[in-house]
Write a structure and sequence with these properties.
The chain is α+β, with helices and mostly antiparallel strands and 440 residues long. Helices cover 32% and strands 28% of the residues. Bound molecules: adenosine-5'-triphosphate and magnesium ion.
Length: 440
C-alpha cells in the first residue's frame, strides 16, 4: 500500500475526549472515528487490525471444532418473549418497530436466535455435540459508553453456542472453548487469566471471565501471580480428548483468581502474601454454561439413545474483538505510539522514503516494496513528500513492527537502515540483505 494513495487520517494533537492511552492512540493513528455516542467507524488502518484479530479468533474456534455461521443484527421480539428475556433485559436493549408496527430489536446477544436455529433442524443426539459461532455486531445501550471501542454501544462479538445431550458433554464443550480462549489471547500477544465469574441461579463453577491485567481496566481483580507464567496449550492439543482438556482446565483453575464480584477475601488471604496479585483488569472474554435455561422454554430437545426426548444442555462463549484492539494497545505501547504484536499488526513492514523525488531513493524503495509485497508481506510504503521527521513519527505512532528506512546517503552506498519498532534497535545493511531478511 502506498501511503500517498491510502486513507490514514493522522491527528497531530492529542484528542481531548480520550481518557486512556489506547483511545488516544487509536484516534491519533486514524484507526477509528466516533459517529455518535459509543458508535464507531473503523477506518482502514483500524479495520486491518480488527480483521487480523478476527482471523486468529476464527482459526482457534475452528480448531476447537466450532462451526461458523452468520446471524442477523436485527431480531424479532417474539423469540425473546419465548425465553422471557424481552421484558427482563431492560434499557440496554435497543427496541425498534418495523413499518408493520412489529417489535424488533438490535441483538445484544444471540442465545434465543441460535436456539431457534437449532430446534428447527436438530432432532437427534447423533447430531451432537454441536457448537455454532459467528462474529457479528451487537448493540447494548450502555449507561456509560467510554474509552472508545473499549466500552461502546455498538461493538463486535464472537459469540459461540454449544449444544450437548448431557451435562458431562457440555462440560467437555466448555473445556474446548476454555483451551481455545487461552490459545487465542496468547496468539494476540496477551496474557489473559481465566477468573471465576458469577453463574447466577444455575450455580456450579462453569463461568469464567478472561481478564487482561491493565491499570486502566474497569474491573478489580485478585489472583495468584503464577498465572502470569503458566504454559499455554500447544497447537497440537487434542480437542477430542476429554481427559486432556479436563487437565488443562484443572490446571488453569487450580490457583486463586477472581474478579471483585466473586472475590473471597479469606481464600485470597490463604495465598502466600508474596504470591498475591491484586490489580485492575479488562474483561476480553466470557464463557458460560447455563444448562437448559433456553432449551426448556424454547423447546429445544433431541431424542436420546434411550428413545426419549431431552432438553439440550447449552453454553455460550463470547469474545469482544473491538475491545481487544484497544486492550492490545493498553498492553503494548510507548511514548511514541503503538507497538503491535506481529500477529495483528496492520502492516508487517513500513518502507520509509526519506527523500521522495530523489531518483536513487525512489528506485530503492520501489525495489524493496515490490520484492516484499511479492513475498506475501503486507507492506506500507511511505512515498509521501512529508519531512523525514514527520515520517518517522508517523511510523512510530502506527506501530508497524519493522521500519526500512531509505535515505540519500545510505542509498548512495547501496544500503538502508532497518529499525525494530519495539526495541528501537537500528541496523544498517545492504538493500539485498534487508530484502532477504524478510523474504526468507
Ligand atoms: P462487561 O462486564 O464489560 O459489561 P459483559 O459481561 O456485559 O461485559 P458479555 O455479555 O460477557 O459482556 O460479552 C462478551 C464479551 O463481549 C465481553 O467479554 C467483552 O469482550 C465484549 N463486550 C461486552 N460489552 C462490550 C461493550 N460495551 N463494548 C465492547 N465490547 C464489549
Ligand atoms: Mg461478562
Amino acid at each position: 500500500m502506498r501511503l500517498s494513495r491510502y486513507f490514514m487520517p493522522i491527528l497531530k494533537e492529542n484528542p481531548k475526549e480520550a481518557e486512556i492511552v489506547s483511545h488516544r492512540l487509536m484516534l491519533r493513528a486514524g484507526m477509528i472515528r466516533q459517529q455518535s455516542q459509543g458508535i464507531y467507524s473503523w477506518l482502514p488502518l483500524g479495520k486491518r487490525v480488527l480483521d487480523k484479530v478476527n482471523a486468529i479468533i476464527r482459526d482457534e474456534q475452528n480448531r476447537a471444532g466450532a462451526i461458523e455461521l452468520s446471524m442477523p443484527t436485527l431480531q424479532s421480539a417474539e423469540l425473546w418473549q419465548e425465553s422471557g428475556r424481552y421484558d427482563a433485559y431492560g434499557k440496554e436493549m435497543l427496541r425498534i418497530k418495523d413499518r408493520q408496527d412489529r417489535p424488533m430489536l438490535y441483538g445484544p446477544t444471540n442465545e434465543e436466535m441460535v436456539t431457534d436455529i437449532f430446534r428447527s433442524s436438530v432432532k437427534s443426539y447423533k447430531d451432537l455435540p454441536l457448537n455454532l459461532y459467528h462474529i457479528q455486531l451487537k448493540f447494548r445501550d450502555e449507561i456509560r459508553p467510554r474509552f472508545g471501542t473499549m466500552r461502546s454501544r455498538e461493538f463486535m462479538m464472537k459469540d459461540a453456542y454449544s449444544f450437548d445431550l448431557t451435562r458431562e458433554g457440555a462440560e467437555h464443550s466448555y473445556n474446548k472453548m476454555f483451551a481455545a480462549y487461552l490459545r487465542t489471547f496468547d496468539r494476540l500477544g496477551l496474557r489473559a487469566i481465566p477468573m471465576r465469574a458469577d453463574t447466577g441461579p444455575i450455580g456450579g463453577k462453569l463461568s469464567h471471565e478472561f481478564i487482561i491485567l491493565a491499570d486502566t481496566g474497569e474491573s478489580e481483580v485478585f489472583c495468584h501471580k503464577d498465572f502470569v507464567d503458566f504454559d499455554i496449550p500447544g497447537a497440537k492439543t487434542d480437542f477430542d480428548s476429554v481427559e486432556g482438556l479436563q487437565a488443562i482446565f484443572d490446571k488453569w483453575t487450580s490457583l486463586y483468581a477472581a474478579t471483585s464480584e466473586m472475590h473471597d477475601e479469606a481464600a485470597f488471604n490463604a495465598v502466600p502474601e508474596g504470591d498475591r496479585l491484586s490489580a485492575r483488569g479488562i474483561e476480553v472474554g466470557h464463557i458460560f454454561y447455563f444448562g437448559t435455561k433456553y432449551s426448556e422454554p424454547m423447546g429445544a430437545k433431541v431424542q436420546g439413545p434411550d428413545g426419549k426426548e431431552h432438553f439440550v444442555h447449552m453454553g455460550s462463549y463470547g469474545i469482544g474483538p473491538t475491545r481487544l484492539v484497544p486492550a492490545i494497545i493498553e498492553a503494548s505501547h510507548d511514548d511514541n505510539g503503538i507497538i503491535w504484536p506481529a500477529s495483528v499488526a496492520p502492516f508487517d513492514i513500513v518502507v520509509i522514503n526519506m527523500k521522495a523525488g530523489d531518483q536513487a531513493c525512489d528506485d530503492t524503495c520501489e525495489l524493496i516494496y515490490a520484492a516484499l509485497t511479492k513475498a506475501g508481506k503486507d507492506v506500507l510504503y511511505d512515498d509521501t513528500d512529508d519531512r523525514a521527521g514527520t515520517k518517522f513519527a508517523t511510523a512510530d505512532l502506527i506501530g508497524v513492527p519493522v521500519q526500512i528506512i531509505a535515505g540519500p546517503r545510505a542509498v548512495a552506498s547501496g544500503e538502508v537502515e532497518v529499525k525494530d519498532r519495539k526495541t528501537g534497535a537500528r541496523e544498517t545493511m545492504t538493500i539485498e540483505a534487508a530484502i532477504n531478511r524478510f523474504v526468507a
